[in-house]
Amino acid sequence: MSPKTGLQTKTARPGGEAGAGLHAAIIMDGNGRWAKRRGMPRALGHRAGVNALKRTVEGAPAAGVGVLTVFGFSTENWRRPAQEVSELMGLLKAYVESDLDRLSREGVRVRIIGRRTGLSPDVLEVIERAERRTAHNDSFLLQVAFNYGGQADIADAARRFAERVERGEARAADLDEATFGSFLSTSAAPAPDLIVRTSGEHRISNFLLWECAYAELVFQDVLWPDYGPEHLAAAVAEYRSRDRRYGGIAADDVAVAG
């Protein structure tokens, strides 16, 4: 069980697949540039990005994906202008309110990972409603990283474990990789098999830093509002074409070396 959520914790094994499919994670990048190229306000790019998310979630199972984690709002995004932060907060509400019925009907479980502190009461209400309504769904898991940062999540996990030690519920010697992973906000899902970043950028940007240890990275030169199931399918195809060794070597490589 996860010490934080009470959920059955799946082993965050490298290369593991969740349920009937892969765990794909996406850094949804390029909304602002998409809008700028069209002479539109950035807010319209973000709204177009919500439609791209709907398309991608709907088409993910056909691409062989059983868990999808998307980067919606980072802990660093608070540095953006107040108007844009407000718009980004509103997008989570808009997405849930416009798509929750379909997600619930189609067996999608929604989890919001990241810090809840600092979020307004209306955003918290939307998060709690989405998680409560879909809690018993098991066909597909959608995780939205919101007010999330990989470094912040690692620090929070370390703090949670330290608090257990202070209360006499654990010892420092109890800490290993699996135990530490169970304190992360992502503990209810296996580690990602594939991490995708859109828009042509080639960096992780503080996303799933612990969990990405053995993930395959795919960078796609498409702005997020133009994204859809065909792009996710292409990323999965590239993932499947790779030889994943997890620090080891293939048997035929051993024979050659010998």
Automatic annotation (TrEMBL):
E.C. number(s) listed in UniProt: 2.5.1.-
Domain of life: Bacteria
One GO CC term, this protein: cytosol
Positions annotated to bind Mg(2+): D29, E216
Subunit annotation: Homodimer.
Family, as annotated: Belongs to the UPP synthase family.
Entry function: Catalyzes the condensation of isopentenyl diphosphate (IPP) with allylic pyrophosphates generating different type of terpenoids.
Descriptive protein name: Isoprenyl transferase
Organism name: Caulobacter zeae
